Predict the structure.
Amino acid sequence: MAQVAPRRDRGVDPSPAAPKRSERTIALDADTVQALRHHRETQQLERDLAGAAYEDHDLAFCDELGRPYQPKWLTKRFSTLRKAAGIPTGSLHILRHTAATLALTANPPAPLHIVAGRLGDRPEILLGLYSHLLPRSDEQAAQALAVVLDDKPMTTAAA
């Protein structure tokens, strides 16, 4: 998936926006993979309909002519959808924090270093931001160690 960089003079630059070190491979659930495949099929139809007018920048998310979305348009569209969903506040960037929070507070929680890797952050950065969400991690570590030492099945209590 390509990423684009905003430019002051002409909207966006379709060349890679992030350094090579920020590229990563992440696992996706089956529903997300299916949704992306459906999106790709729709995109292929748009490409066929646009013919020579289609600008192929190898983008996963672009307008019907293959052009990168303008950052201001994305911000406005997100705001419209957020309000329609009844979510009172929040920017597009808040989705990153929401993803981290949901992963770290799931039952069982995703390991912090895995969440950090998916977001492209170091674990210590995430620990500083989200440690308040992990009040039971010491209890969970103690229980996991007891299971190994006592050869007992591990139980999960509600947080």
